[in-house]
Fold:
Amino acid sequence: QVQLVESGGGVVQPGGSLRLSCAASGFIFSIYGMHWVRQAPGKGLEWVAFIHSYEASDRFYADSVKGRFTISRDNSRNTLHLQMNSLRPEDTAVYYCVTNQDGIDDWGQGTLVTVST
Amino acid sequence: DVVMTQSPLSLPVTLGQPASISCRSSQSLVHSDGNTDLNWFQQRPGQSPRRLIYKVSNRDSGVPDRFSGSGSGTDFTLKISRVEAEDVGVYYCMQGTHWPPWTFGQGTRVEIK
Structure:
């Protein structure tokens, strides 16, 4: 079955950077688009970024992260990444890796990012 | 961007009784290909979200048949025919027709009375 394991979260100061990773298994990673979705503590779900499958040059971002975050993928390693720069306190959230096999479907367990002094 | 509005935001229900959650979109979710990409997700306490319903009314594998989705255009509903204790959590609607961005409703918290 689909397994998505996120890593790379932690505590970072405002203005700092973090790189999240998502190890995917149980499906043919290279042929599906992938998303990052986040959830601030006690809040709802917010879509962050999407990357197409083969044409990884097709990437889309929420306005709130555009210019600061970069989504990428390594199909040879079945891995999804999110490079987060210029982090702000409002970026504090659990970040989920999500498949797009038939729309937004399977979710990982999430990794917590805390931006604080 | 398409705004998704859910109601109610909090739903106390009695075990064994039905429950209904409404989701409205700021524009029609009918795609040019005729499909309507409206989905429902369940998030139990301490867990990741899980998709229950896709394209308005299709249940995902393993989802109990007490869950059903309906609607069209801009108005959609998730119904639970008889609420069980394991149904406690937050339910989100989400549209994937007009992207980017993909947009979620605010969430509806279902609790047992």
Notes: The first strand of chain B starts at residue 4 and ends at 7. Chain B touches chain A through 23 residues (CB under 8 Å). The mean pLDDT of chain B is 97. The CA atoms of residues 43 and 49 of chain B lie 4 Å apart.
